[in-house]
Amino acid sequence: GYSSDLLPFVGELPDQSNGYVIAGFHGHGMPRILLCARALADVILGRTKNIEELIPEPYVITKSRLETKENCILKHMSAHLNLLEIEERIV
Description:
The protein has 91 residues and is mainly alpha-helical. The protein has helices at 30-44, 63-67, 72-90; strands spanning 9-12, 20-23. A two-stranded antiparallel ribbon has the order 1-2.
């Protein structure tokens, strides 16, 4: 699946103790998901408390990322479709 900001969600779910997620790698996750999974396992097992030290900060699941209304995929697709419409009018 896809996230609205095109980045994966990794970490503990906001407002839900002991609920964890690692998702949204968009088909390109093989080089990224293994280290993210290891980092999340370290958090769950209590080896570290701060996942932000182990994975890229934009990957960390936050309430604001979950609640955002902006959708990068739709934004880019609509821009592309608008360009196609303009091109059709010119031709």
